[in-house]
Specification:
Length: about 80
């Protein structure tokens, strides 16, 4: 994931997705959630709407499934 984050912060998204799809998705979520969390903290209340437990769980599960799927495909491709 480190390589995908390094590519993502430089805006090299095709390279980031090739190196690790789940890591790239996680980097994109961090780009969105980081400033949103900081602005919410500065304001003392959530900016727009507070995150629901279901939304956080769904995003976490989605990134986990993509990461595991990417890993599985890479292992399968290396076996051939």
């Amino acid at each position: 994931m480190t390589t995908s984050w390094a590519h993502a912060v430089r805006g090299q998204f095709p390279s980031a997705f090739r190196s690790n799809t789940g890591g790239t998705l996680l980097a994109l979520l961090a780009v969105i959630a980081g400033p949103w969390g900081v602005l919410s903290a500065v304001r003392g209340r959530w900016l727009w709407v507070p995150p629901s437990d279901l939304a956080v769980a769904a995003l976490t599960l989605a990134v986990l499934l993509v990461t595991l799927g990417d890993w599985g495909v890479r292992l399968w491709m290396d076996a051939w």
